[in-house]
Amino acid sequence: MRLRLDTLDDLPPQVRRPSYARADLSAGIIHIGLGNFHRAHQAWYLHRLMQQGLAQDWAILGAGVRPADGAQRARMLAQDCLTTLIELDPSGKSAEVTGAMIGFIPVADDNAALIAHMAEPAIRIVSLTVTEGGYYVAPEGGFDADHPDMAHDAAHPETPRSAFGAIIAALKLRRDAGAGPFTCQSCDNLQGNGNILRQSVLGLARLSDPVLADWIAQNVTFPNAMVDCIVPATGPAELDLARGFGIEDAAPVTHENFRQWVIEDDFCAGRPDWDLVGATFTDNVHSYEAMKLRLLNAGHQIIATPAELLSVETIAGAMAHPLISALFHKIAREEIVPHVAAVPGMAPQEYVDLIAARFANPEIRDTTRRVAFDGAARHAGFLHPIIRDALAGDAPIEGLALIEALWARMCCGSREDATPIAPNDPAWHTLTTAANAARQTPQTWIAQTQCYGSLGQNKTFAKAFHKYLKMIHTKGTENTIKTYLNEEV
């Protein structure tokens, strides 16, 4: 059955569907970057509220600023913006159709339609999932004002190319019309994601309109949040899963049987009551996000990087690999847990066990390639802060240095079995050039300040990195991991 509003009643009885009418909904949120994670996470929480007859005026309009977003728009509009969510529980799969999204704004280079919609007074939240690397953050953490996108938007504030430029243009219209601000809400995996979003918006606004920047700083809120749910990319297997439930969905989403959303309650124009359906509002988001980013997101890189080199296709497969699993547990327990604080109801060691079980879920076909994508942003965001903290406290960093060396080896562009690794980073050419030069001079890799900032100049880190990269190139990935694990080689 092709998924549309007029076919909902004809879906198989085991497929859950919206109990609310689309005609009763009105938009209160614009979400920029409408990928799988948003639809399995934020949109799902809103859908659950709507199933209770709540939040009817908080429906979502999808939006995007990249050419690929136009293709997603066409797919979603063809099925009335409905999404099939397939939960991959080891005890059995289930399917649910969600309908919290009611439209998708046209995608254009000048973002005129997006700006106009964000300027509407009914829009009270603009949320984003634009990836960890999409916030124009310089290597040392500040705003990257020199990025070409930011230079363009500063010079052409009425026709911006970035999401942040569009947000600023819309806020200017709202200020001038007396419509008031909206909340800017990041849903990306960044520690202090609200703070980073605020930095990007204000940093760009100050380049072209300091008075407007001051108004934004005084009136717009940027709540921090921790988001968590493993959501694989959609491919032929996921399309077939939807068909197995009797649904022809051009963009179904699969996800694990776990979600978490911890949010700072700082919304200048109101918000849905997401806490009624499982979200947590707290003033202590930092501890939750530090635990998740340092153990789950960094853990993903710890297992995906050697898995790619050893031709292990999925994250579950990586956890079934004795060496990779042992590597994850040793680094997590000995080199990351000491830098993670407990949160209510969860100690760091318990969280390691929880995410190990989630990673090992055989129903989740999450590829190592997807998890390893954009390593330049993910290593800098998830692993390097831990290394810096460990170095500052004279704590162990051997395993973390090994992961950086494995990443450098991965960026050479081939696996241990000599099969090629297709480009898997926006800066792939730069990374492969440095990685291959580092075969002879390891310092070349960690001298990349766009990734490492000043970390590459630390003698303790550099010594460990040099040792492991040389070992990987002479003895191979498996033997190097065994050496770190103190196994016989």
Question: What does this protein look like?
Answer:
The protein is α/β, with parallel strands linked by helices and 489 residues long. It folds into two domains: 5-283, NAD(P)-binding Rossmann-like Domain (Rossmann fold), CATH 3.40.50.720; 286-484, N-(1-d-carboxylethyl)-l-norvaline Dehydrogenase, domain 2 (Orthogonal Bundle). It is 47% helix and 10% strand. The protein has 21 helices and eleven strands. The strands form three sheets. It has a five-stranded parallel β-sheet with strand order 5-2-1-6-7, sandwiched between helices. A hairpin with a 2-residue loop joins β3 (83-89) and β4 (92-98). α4 (112-118) packs across α6 (163-177). The radius of gyration is 23 Å and the shape is globular. It starts with 26 loop residues before the first strand and ends in a 5-residue tail after the last helix. The model has no long low-confidence stretch (mean pLDDT 96).
Q: Largest sheet, if any? A: 5 strands, parallel
CATH topology of the largest domain, anyone? Rossmann fold
Tell the overall outline: globular
Kindly, what is the distance between the CA atoms of the first and last residues, rounded to a whole number of angstroms? 56 Å
Percent in helix: 40-55%
Evaluate the radius of gyration: 23 Å
Mean residue pLDDT:
96
**Strand fraction:** 5-15%
**How many helix segments?**
21
Q: What is the assigned CATH homologous superfamily of the largest domain?
A: NAD(P)-binding Rossmann-like Domain
Which structural class fits the helix and strand makeup?
Answer: alpha/beta
Beta-strand segment tally? 11
Name of the level-1 CATH class of the largest domain: Alpha Beta
CATH architecture of the largest domain, please?
3-Layer(aba) Sandwich
Which ranges are low-confidence, i.e. pLDDT below 50, for 5 or more consecutive residues? none
Number of domains: 2
Oligomeric state, counting identical vs distinct chains = single chain
Strands across the major sheet, in which order?
Answer: 5-2-1-6-7
